[in-house]
Amino acid sequence: MKHHALALPLLLLAGCATVQPADRPISPARLSDDVRVLASEPFGGRAPGTEGETRTVEWLIGQLQAIGLEPGGPGGEWTQPVPLVRTQLQPGRTLARAGGTTLDLAQGRDVYVSTVKPVDRVEIAQAPMVFVGYGVSAPERGWDDFKDVDLQGKVAVFLVNDPDFAAAPGEPAAGRFGDRTMTYYGRWTYKFEEAARRGAVAALIVHDTEGAGYGWDTVTAPAGENYDIADATGRLALQGWLEGDAAARLFAASGLDLAAQRRAARSPDFRPVPLTATFTADIPVTHDRLQSRNVLARIPGTTRPEEVVMYGAHWDAYGRGAPDAEGRTIRPGANDDAMGVAGLLEIARAFKSAPAPERSVVFGFWTAEERGLLGSEAYAIRPVYPPAQTVANITLDILQTGGRAKDVILVGQGQNTLEDDLAREAARQHRVVTAETLPERGLFYRADHFSLAKRGVPTLLFMAISGVPDLREGGREAGRTWLNDYMRCYHQTCDAWSADLDFAAAVEDVDLAYAVGRDLATSTRWPEWKEGSEFRPIRQESLSR
Q: For 198-253, what is each residue's pLDDT tens digit?
């Protein structure tokens, strides 16, 4: 510990900004050093609007200046303002009444809720509860779970993921969505948005680890805190999750079997089921507005500077929370996503050590990803570089540190031609591309690249939790061990820097991201969305303007 305490100030001052020889531009030692700084105690878990943000943004700007980049934000600034509202639930009460039974729903145990409304108190008095199945309205797939049932003033109860996620062959839902590959209809964000559009006062999603892709600890990690872009409209009074066993008890108290209702929801004939239950909440809320910031940097192109190749990573993590078993309160986000930030810095150094690109290269370090992709969404609402002129977005968000791998995991197979570029560059590393093996996690819709994809920009996401890597030592069994170990620390205090992390393994993926972007930055090619992608029409429309 004394060694770390002495070394850290030197890292902060030096910034690890020296350039390696061009034949090995990405340095595992620098990657490790930068992650170690960002995940250190002085940065406090890098929550937006805290001293940790101030320190992080200042440190990032210092690094980018040392590397030799230009400011890339609006008006030639390093930062883009992102006004946010922050809410924090205080101790209160949530309960359900079904028949003569009162179910106290303890926050963090039976239910996890939050609000994004800047109000002093959330008060919901005996609101009727309605089970809406998967809560999907997808006319292009011939699916409507709502059947015009009025949700005004009610609490909508959803299942997580898509209707075909758990469907057996031959069931009506089988193959109607993405099978085991989550679509946007399966994301909690879609379900909350749909409930709000239909006038619900609150929405609760029944949690199960397999369908959600993460455990209950991940759900409860924000500890009642939430964020939104300031002055947003069309929001629920309360939103969150029902723990699986608590949901089963609630359904049973309403005379329903949850397992049977799950099966019924896997049919396009499903109709919403009113529960013989009401939901009551009385929860004080503290709230404030804060000014967070994206950090943007740029390398101007020599011949086509108006065309932009963009890299992205989020600088934020979860800040401080309840003490763990060892008394640690800081959730340092070493891999999620200090690793991605460090990777972008390494890519920037690599670009600066090579001949200048023909197209401009922009580096976006986003705030509030952990609060719902808010920083990248704020950028996409008010882009500094028009989407039609943005060639591609390449995002780093959690890299594999278990050992060098024979493959690289592709998130969102079949979406766009960047996957072909990835395969070409991976072959040069004697690696192959493996489609995500955990597509039910819906990761294509859970990282900052999605904010750009929604505006038609072709994207490539590096996110190691999307599948089990095939490690050169130990194969997929070793890869599964790494993934399981990491997921136990996902959003927790143990996502911390350690000398045991294999930064050489992470470097291989950073190398790939650099190579794909470098090729685009020195060419006239424009990646395309493939036939069948929901983003292809958006891109075609933006390019035709």
A: 999 999 999 999 999 889 998 998 899 999 999 888 999 999 999 999 999 999 99
* Gyration radius of the chain over CA positions: 23
Could you give the CA distance from residue 312 to residue 333 in angstroms, rounded to a whole number? Answer: 16
CB burial of residue 101 (10 Å; 0-12, 13-18, 19+): middle
* Single-letter amino acid code for the residue at 79: T
Residue whose structure tokens are 């709502």:
146
Report the distance separating Cα 93 and Cα 114, nearest Å. Answer: 12
| Residues contacting residue 287 through CB under 8 Å, at least 6 positions apart | 85, 86, 87, 88, 118, 119, 120
What pTM value is reported for the model? 0.83
pLDDT of the residue at 440: 78
Beta bridge mates, 159: 206
Q: Would you say the C-alpha torsion 125, 131, 135, 138 has a positive or negative sign?
A: negative
d(CA 113, CA 222): 10
Helix (H, G, I), strand (E, B) or coil at 98: strand
Low-confidence residues of the chain, pLDDT below 70?
Answer: 1-24
Are the C-beta atoms of 149 and 272 separated by less than 8 Å? yes
Enumerate the β-bridge partners of residue 394.
Answer: 311, 460
Q: Which phi and psi angles does 341 have, rounded to 5°?
A: -60, -45
In this structure, the dihedral spanned by the alpha carbons of residues 129, 132, 135 and 141, taken in order and rounded to 10 degrees, is -160
The rounded percent of the chain whose pLDDT value lies above 90 is: 86
* Widest Cα–Cα separation across the chain: 75
The answer to whether the CB of 224 falls within 8 A of the CB of 128 is: no
User: Residues with Cβ < 8 Å from 178, sequence gap 6 or more?
Assistant: 162, 164, 186, 439
Tokens of 9: 């100030």
